[in-house]
């Protein structure tokens, strides 16, 4: 029976602590690759001609690519398999050329019947600080 | 608003039997920029506490695109009518406006690993409207549960679409 190894030590984490950030410049190749691995073939993400015909400045990013990028920042820090909840609001579209940076801030911790848990607020923003995702997650700690 | 909450909430959106396979999982991880060896190597996955390579946190959202084969699909809960979300959204879009993926939530009950078979069932769980900045926002919330062969929940997703006009 799988038992993912938790990386965060409950006693060493305090409210206000921040997790490491991940930065990534979004490219059109990312959008094509994500369309392929997810099966989301909406042309607004991959076909510049269609996107411009629809009145958009260019193709734009899949919200679920952004959520996946932010998930990577969480699991890099907490260890794969150590999320119990993860939710986001998609606040703005993402565009090729933007540099997206993740943010993880500890908002609380608690000892539950199921074990030690750390609550975090999470976000993703571009180089100008414009929010793309805002959400929260719960992490298993040891 | 043209849609009645009582008629919509509880509507099934679909069901599928999904096999979790190594190629799709490993490529999906790379597709969200995640180069962790845990998603590529069985040995690294075991060292991280798994029985086999696990799926990244958002994989289930795309899982039905992969590993869904005709020989073991469940009976279609929509009775062949297909996912009602598309029809409901086109009814709203007939009045103009824009449809956006507003929110996404995952609840993780157990790890998803390659070799697993997941049984997916979705339904509409909420419909409501709000007025904001002179616009009407209609929210349609769908819940999808993935269960293992024993019927225990593995992942629950909530997907929230917004029609803004």
Could you give me the name of the CATH homologous superfamily of chain B?
Hotdog Thioesterase
Supply the number of helical segments of chain B.
Answer: 5
N-to-C span of chain B: 11 Å
CATH topology type of chain B: Thiol Ester Dehydrase, Chain A
Major sheet size, sense and barrel closure of chain B: 5 strands, antiparallel
- Estimate what percentage of residues of chain A fall within beta strands: 25-35%
Give the % helix of chain B. Answer: 10-25%
User: Going across the major beta sheet of chain B, what is the strand order?
Assistant: 1-3-4-5-2
CATH topology of one domain in chain A: Thiol Ester Dehydrase, Chain A
* Alpha-carbon Rg of chain B, integer: 18 Å
CATH homology superfamily of one domain in chain A: Hotdog Thioesterase
CATH class category name of one domain in chain A: Alpha Beta
Unreliable stretches of chain B, pLDDT < 50, 5 or more residues?
none
Plain-language structure description:
The complex is a heterodimer of chains A (142) and B (165). Chain A has 142 residues and is of the alpha+beta class. Chain A has a domain at 10-26 and 61-140: Hotdog Thioesterase (Thiol Ester Dehydrase, Chain A, Roll), CATH 3.10.129. Chain A has helices at residues 28-38, 43-46, 48-53, 63-78; strands spanning 23-25, 83-90, 99-112, 115-125, 131-140. In chain A, strand 4 (115-125) and strand 5 form a beta hairpin. Chain B has one domain (5-164): Roll (Thiol Ester Dehydrase, Chain A), CATH 3.10.129. Chain B has a five-stranded antiparallel sheet with strand order 1-3-4-5-2. In chain B, a hairpin with a 2-residue loop joins strand 3 and strand 4. The relative contact order of chain B is 0.23. At the A-B interface, helix 1, helix 4 and strand 2 of A face helix 2 and strand 2 of B. Strand 2 of chain A pairs antiparallel with strand 2 of chain B, so a sheet runs across the interface.
